[in-house]
Amino acid sequence: MRVGVVLFLVFVAGVNGEGEKCIPRYFGHSSFACVCNATYCDTLPRPPALAGGEFLLCTSDMETNRFLMKSHAFDETGGNGTTEVNDFILDPEITYQTVLGFGGAFTDSAAKNWLSLSTGAQDHLLRSYFSSVGIEYNVGRVNMGGCDFSWRTYSYDDVEGDVALEHFALQEEDTAYKIPMIQRAKEMSEKPIKLFASPWSAPKWMKSNKEFQGMGHLLKEMYQPWAEYFVKFFKSYLEYDLDFWGVTAQNEPMDGNIPYFWFNCMGWTAETQRKWIAEHLGPTLENNNLGDLKLMIMDDQRLLLPSWPATVLNDTEAAKYVDGIAIHWYWDQFSSPELLTRTHELFPDTFLMGTEACVGDKPYEAEVAIGAWERLERYAHDIITDFNHWVTGWTDWNLALDTQGGPNWAGNFVDSAIIVNETADEFYKNPMFYAMGHFSKFVQEGAQRVELTPVNQVSLKTVAFRNSDNSVAIVVLNKSGREIEARIQTPTLGSINVLVGPRSLHTVYYV
User: Fold this and answer.
1) Which residues have CB under 8 Å from 359's CB, separation 6+?
2) Catalytic-role residue among 93, 228, 239, 252
């Protein structure tokens, strides 16, 4: 190893508690990724005990650090008097929504990439996400049947006309790939993992166009068999001791209304989804002792708010089965986050949940950009914005992809928080991984968002939470290229004064 690299590793290490440090590698983008293999991976232990009058500052930045931990005293000097100052007032007694959690998706592709690694590297990958020395995800999405992040098209019953579903069976993608990955993640986690399922398409013979992709909808005579299909899925997974917290009625129901749409989809309108839930899915789940599943509608872009949920939830029969509204982020630039707030105000007892996000999906973007700091900023900015507008949880897309951004049978390659290099038996933690960890590690399930009020015109993006143990986590994003002093006045402990470096993400944590 060259001396320069050694010095860089020492600099990256900093004071990071007792955790293992990032081994950085550049791939030609704006920042570095952290390299893990069968014998080594960086870790993030739980916050250490703090002395009275101290808070912890966790920092990641474009130039040097990943999860750098340092303790500071309240009221100590933060800036140097020459930097821009952003002032905030924290009031943990003013509370908003309750947090459900953070996580990612156990797709076919994620499981295949995980299994392509040696046992040691597999353990490091799942430990990074789910263990007490990782970022402690508590949410996992599972595709019900094939999706684009599969290496083939399939359903659980491809026998034409089998309305009784006598031939329903989980596939190798479940039994040999996803299920072992989920089981291992559960073993590593000290927290329950909230699993939720999402279907991309019914079997071809149930659909108007007789294809997994393209413009097509569920035939009306298949409304009840499709509801029974859900029941068989959940009962099949239960045979592997995997029960689910929730389910979305359909992944991106608008996709199946688009001519020539190129990957797995099935079209719905809000009206047809309402009818199917009220008359078929809701009653069928209840009649099969699955009524406790959290049923989420929409599972599509924010620009459909609030019209889609209003159409479904203003029907009392459908509404009694619906718990949440699932949201994807892909076209957020064409809509205001105030749509989230308006939807919450209309339906305050129905939670809002971010269920899918990734980068590299647009034709003008690089599909995989290992080490790109801008992608961390997009994640952190969106999470902060969503939570400041009543969203309760945020789910990343694939837990792991290969260096092409797949496998994906439809060629719909994208980026991931973790990229697997099977040939080298190593994986790379993208900056996006650390964006997720700044939230998932410090903001616990059951936390409540609390009031954090800017006093002056501010450049920083911020959000604050109070956990059920009364600890407080404040996430601060600086997308600018300049240094900014953040001064956060607490009600009883004094002022948190921190110097926020350029292009950086921070979590302030105290008890």
Assistant:
1) 365, 369, 375, 378, 379, 414, 415, 432
2) 252
Q: Where are the domains of the chain?
A: 75-99+445-511, 100-440
Cα within 13 Å of Cα(424), Cβ side: 11
Pairing of strands 294-301, 324-328: parallel
Domain 75-99+445-511: state its class: mainly beta
In DSSP notation, 376-422 reads HHHHHHHHHHHHTTTEEEEEEEES-EETTS---TT------SEEEET
Name the active-site residue from 356, 367, 377, 485. Answer: 356
Active site (annotated) includes residue 367: no
Give residue for tokens 């999470």. Answer: 383
HSE at residue 143, side-chain half, CA atoms within 13 A, is 32
Q: Which DSSP state fits 173?
A: I
pTM: 0.96
Give the span between the Cα atoms of 290 and 281, in whole angstroms: 10
Give the CATH class of 100-440. Answer: alpha beta
Each residue's pLDDT expressed in tens, for the chain with a length of 511 residues: 223 333 233 333 333 356 899 999 999 999 999 999 999 999 999 998 898 899 999 999 999 999 999 999 999 988 777 889 999 999 999 999 999 999 999 999 999 999 999 999 999 999 999 999 999 999 999 999 999 999 999 999 999 999 999 999 999 999 999 999 999 999 999 999 999 999 999 999 999 999 999 999 999 999 999 999 999 999 999 999 999 999 999 999 999 999 999 999 999 999 999 999 999 999 999 999 999 999 999 999 999 999 999 999 999 999 999 999 999 999 999 999 999 999 999 999 999 999 999 999 999 999 999 999 999 999 999 999 999 999 999 999 999 999 999 999 999 999 999 999 999 999 999 999 999 999 999 999 999 999 999 999 999 999 999 999 999 999 999 999 999 999 999 999 999 999 999 999 999 999 9
With beta carbons less than 8 A apart as the criterion, state whether 93 and 83 touch: no
Active site residue 356: yes
**How far, in Å, CA of 289 to CA of 309, rounded?**
25
Bin 446: left if φ > 0, else alpha if -120 < ψ < 50, else beta: left
